[in-house]
Amino acid sequence: MLVTIEELGKTSLYPEIIQKITRGSNDAAELCILEAESLARSYMSKYNLDAIFGNAESEPTFTGQDINLVKKIIKIIASYYLVRKANPNVNVELFRADYEDALTWLESLQAGNVNPDLPYKPDSSETGGDNSDVYFNSLPKQNNFF
Question: Hey, which residues does 120 pair with through a beta bridge?
Fold first, then answer.
């Protein structure tokens, strides 16, 4: 996971609130973080997701400044998922507004309206050989015989 429960408790929700919502089980908090990461990944298809998020075999390798922005988006989404379960002493509307802002940013990222310093996918024949926002392809050439 890119974001840990401890990081979530330091920046988005107080640790005691997380404890009350999850009833002392880290599994619920980890599941919310994983769901938030999955949502963020679904908007970031043009980026090198293994470098940003890591995978089952390796840890994330990208350490640029804008990784903090991605972590913040994940924390906002995970916090909203947690407070939807139960909301002891928190205002759910504030978390919902942050959640909607995070989704708006992800949609802007996907549309190419914002361009953080994140690694693009490596070049391949599917991406056309460069990392631009425009991709195209065509059908294979056909030979017609009369």
Answer: 47
pLDDT recorded at residue 74 = 94
> What are the residues whose beta carbons fall under 8 Å from the beta carbon of 81, sequence distance 6 or more?
32, 35, 36
Number of domains the chain is built from: 1
Residue 117 lies in a domain: no
Token representation of residue 67: 């990784």
Q: If we measure between CA atoms, which residue out of 124, 2, 4, 116 comes closest to residue 58?
A: 2
Q: What domain range includes position 58?
A: 5-111
pTM for this entry: 0.78
| Max Cα-Cα span within the chain | 78
**26-43 vs 67-85: helix axis angle to the nearest 10?**
130
Q: What is the band of 134 on the pLDDT scale with cuts at 50, 70, 90? A: low
* Tokens encoding 120: 């693009």
* Any domain includes 91: yes
User: What is the rounded distance in angstroms from the CA atom of residue 3 to the CA atom of residue 70?
Assistant: 10
